[in-house]
Amino acid sequence: MQEGWLTKTFKGDRAIWGIIALFMIYSLLAVYSSSVNVAFRNHGGNTTYFLRSQFLMLLSGLAIIVIVHYLPYRIYSALAGVVVIISAILLVLTYFFGVKINDATRWLEIPFIGFRIQTSDIAKVALVIYLARTLARYQNQLKDFVLVTKFFILPVFIICALIMPENLSTALMIFAVCILILFIGGVPFKYLLAYIGMAVVFVVLFALFLWLVTDDNRVLTWIERIINFITGKGNETDDFQINQAKIAISTGGFFGKAPGHSIQRNMLPQSNSDFIFAIIIEEYGLFLGAIPLILAYMILLFRGIAIVKKCETAFPAYLVLGLIVMIVFQAMLNMMVAVGILPVTGQTLPLVSWGRTSVIMMCFSIGVILSVSRVVNARMKKEELPEEEEKDEGEIIYGSAPA
Fold first, then answer.
1. Phi first, then psi: what are they for 254, rounded to 5°?
2. Pairwise CA distance, residues 97 & 184, whole Å
3. Of 159, 184, 191, 155, which Cα lies nearest the Cα of 81?
């Protein structure tokens, strides 16, 4: 009885539902353990502050996944252009009216309720949806440089340019994800090299402008991080974070120190968000922490590819592919920062790190992926039914968006 209820409620790819459950279990355990001391110190002795916050966000995220995966995915095709425009407006509002935290204005506070949203997380997902729709619409015209520049790269440049002043690493990550999606979508490689070259020139000119015209020291921080990472001589803050993360990973060993026994959580800044992967390895080790999480993201990638192969039209295929690439790319980026392969970027571990907007948008993205999976699975099941049984099939199968 229970199994039938679960099957009817949670449709789509079952492996992805299992991965969601795994991520949420890791998230609750790691967020609580990594933030208990910070919560006690900063929230009046309430050691469960971050655990309660994350539990509510994950519960809300699960509800979003369930709701979204029942919606017809074709609505995102119709709204693709609108959501990009809205996200651009939100980024502009954030720049002028956002809340400044840690010398960066990245959050927009919703009036009256006080809930803060990180608008770059919304813009990231909006861009992926837009690119999926645009690739589907112009899939036979991708060799037209002017068209690709106008309808593909220009919106990407605008969104990234709006994010860059306050969050260079996120802007670069979003740009890299978009370039990867366009490469997979069939945009000629020489075009992509040209766009990358343009982006490098733009970033350099923008940094030079900030350096000469304003007294903002953020440019010096960017340059210092790059030079120090290349030379191996990081600044005091970055060195401290990376060193503490490395200590956490090395002392975790193969089997970890056991849940709740992390030492570096007391010294490592952002231990419940940017560097949560290091804390997971410290407590659960290589075999119970690192490997299961890496495998989970890889399985998520391959399940996404399997869904793409079942799609009969372009838009749902590009939609799933884009969202899967975005999630896995960010996860790999976070892990590589934690182990010291890349400089500090401030990217969270999707569906695991403590967060609000990031959790909601990742859950929304998973819901969209499952929406496509639900529809293609229903179509394949219907095709396998005998003709007399097809007449009794009650599920509505939504049509795909026109390519």
1. -80, -35
2. 37
3. 155
**Strand order of the sheet with strand 99-101?**
99-101, 104-109, 116-118
Distance CA 257, CA 282 (A): 6
Q: Which amino acid is at 56?
A: L
Per-residue CA distances from 264 to 5, 34, 247, 269, 341 (Å): 43, 9, 7, 9, 19
> Computed from CA positions of residues 79, 351, 244, 292, in that sequence, does the dihedral angle turn out positive or negative?
negative
Nearest to residue 354, comparing CAs of 336, 334, 325? Answer: 334
- C-beta of residue 136 within 8 angstroms of C-beta of residue 77: yes
Structure tokens at 30: 């790691």
For the chain, state the CA radius of gyration. Answer: 22
The DSSP code for 399 is P
Query: 114: which DSSP letter?
Result: -
Interatomic CA distance for residues 22 and 291, integer angstroms: 13
Secondary structure tally for the chain: helices H, strands E? 16, 3
pLDDT confidence of residue 399: 38
User: Cα 265 vs. chain centroid, distance in angstroms?
Assistant: 24
**Lowest pLDDT segment from 63-67, 208-212, 312-316:** 208-212
Judged against a pLDDT cut of 70, whether residue 35 lies above it is answered with yes
| Chain-centre distance for alpha carbon 101 | 21
Determine the 3-state secondary structure of 116 from DSSP. strand
Name the one residue in this structure whose structure tokens are 């837009």.
130
Report DSSP state, residue 109: E
Helix (H) or strand (E) holding 117: strand 116-118
Which pTM was predicted? Answer: 0.90
Question: Of how many residues is the chain composed?
Answer: 403
Q: Three-state SS for 105? A: strand
What's the number of CA atoms in the CB half-sphere (13 Å) around residue 257? 20
Q: Which residues pair with 108 in a beta bridge?
A: 117
- 3-class SS at 100? strand
Which among 334, 294, 367, 358 has a CA at the least distance from the CA of 67? 367
Beta bridge partners of 20: none
